[in-house]
Amino acid sequence: MAEVLVYVDHVDGAVRKPTLELLTLARRIGEPVAVALGAGAEATAPALAEHGAVKVLTADAPEFADYLVVPKVDALQAAYEAVSPAAVLVPSSAEGKEIAARLAVRIGSGIITDAVDLEAGDEGPVATQSAFAASFTTKSRVSKGTPVITVKPNSAAVEAAPAAGTVEALSVSFGELATGTKVVARTPRESTGRPELTEAAIVVSGGRGVNGAENFSIIEALADSLGAAVGASRAAVDAGWYPHSNQVGQTGKSVSPQLYIASGISGAIQHRAGMQTSKTIVAINKDAEAPIFELVDYGIVGDLFDVVPQLTQEIQSRKG
Ligand SMILES: Cc1cc2nc3c(=O)[nH]c(=O)nc-3n(C[C@H](O)[C@H](O)[C@H](O)COP(=O)(O)OP(=O)(O)OC[C@H]3O[C@@H](n4cnc5c(N)ncnc54)[C@H](O)[C@@H]3O)c2cc1C
């Protein structure tokens, strides 16, 4: 069976969920071979094996931490040359897309970014993308070279499928461009304790209807009861009620969680663009005519200040 390279996103050996989703998708096309780089690369092996990696190629070198993406591209290219895979899958983060694009240029292949699904096809893997503010769903395949495909978080359910996960050291030699951009400082973001917005399985968002920064605490309380990330509409962000890093939409982040709860959000096209591919959408809005109700699975017509705290309380009580 053909091998499929999967680029591993991890933090000191802790594999992030989008990589486990990639392994699930990779198994539809062939045998996943994972590529883990940097500090803790070998520690990723048990989780990767548990989710179907037949091999884990690892490399560590100061270059991975001290310089921007090129050393990682050098390593992924080394893995590509060692394995001659049927496809290369990379998580669709900003860094992942840059690594994938550079690899595709180097190996003369076509690239598909931001896929939301992947299936095997007679002439190579077929990727589904959601285009034009999710107004269209397209299916495409790479027609030149080895397909390089980046896949958005939450595009597949993580499935365990234990495999050997044999660790092999990857031999990497860095090109002269590898040290072109040096990392000179790092400032860790203050942790909210909540999941990353673009990776969260559940997102609870608030809009202009929340009516003030102080009221976002009720959105946060609902999010925390569900283990969710908090999102915001641009109106709420522009009003200074919530940080721009939490904005969902065309000029914010795109999310595709299992569950998206919109509170006090009208459903403007630019907001939809960032959340329309969510699996289940729930809206709470006091205006029954609000456009958000056109795309919801469940709609609650009501005042969010009544509904949201009750919902939080009910969820808490069911958790016992
Ligand atoms: C180029 C461009 C890019 C944009 N990018 C984005 C983007 O990335 N993300 C984004 O979100 N927007 C974006 N916008 C803005 C977008 O057009 C809307 O203005 C914005 O999404 C509206 O935010 P909102 O739904 O919170 O506010 P509103 O449209 O004002 O809606 C507020 C809603 O809250 C309801 N409400 C009020 N009080 C309550 C209550 N107590 N209980 C329940 N419901 C209540 C109201 O009925 C209303 O439906 C962009 C616009 C442009 C032009």
UniProtKB/TrEMBL annotation:
Annotated cofactor note: Binds 1 FAD per dimer.
Transmembrane segments: none
Domain Electron transfer flavoprotein alpha/beta-subunit N-terminal: 4-183
Gene3D superfamilies: HUPs, TPP-binding domain
Entry keyword annotation includes Transport: yes
Keywords: Electron transport, FAD, Flavoprotein, Transport
Stored PANTHER family: ELECTRON TRANSFER FLAVOPROTEIN ALPHA, ELECTRON TRANSFER FLAVOPROTEIN SUBUNIT ALPHA, MITOCHONDRIAL
Protein name as it appears in the record: Electron transfer flavoprotein subunit alpha
Oligomer and partners: Heterodimer of an alpha and a beta subunit.
Pfam families: ETF, ETF_alpha
Role played: The electron transfer flavoprotein serves as a specific electron acceptor for other dehydrogenases. It transfers the electrons to the main respiratory chain via ETF-ubiquinone oxidoreductase (ETF dehydrogenase).
PROSITE patterns associated with the record: ETF_ALPHA (PS00696)
GO MF terms, alphabetically ordered: electron transfer activity; flavin adenine dinucleotide binding
Positions contributing to FAD binding: 208, 233-234, 247-251, 264-271, 285
Known cofactor(s): FAD
Family: Belongs to the ETF alpha-subunit/FixB family.
Keyword Manganese on entry: no
GO biological process: fatty acid beta-oxidation using acyl-CoA dehydrogenase
Signal peptide as annotated in the record: none
UniProt xrefs under InterPro entries: DHS-like_NAD/FAD-binding_dom, ETF_a/b_N, ETF_a/FixB, ETF_alpha_N, ETF_asu_C, ETF_asu_C_CS, Rossmann-like_a/b/a_fold
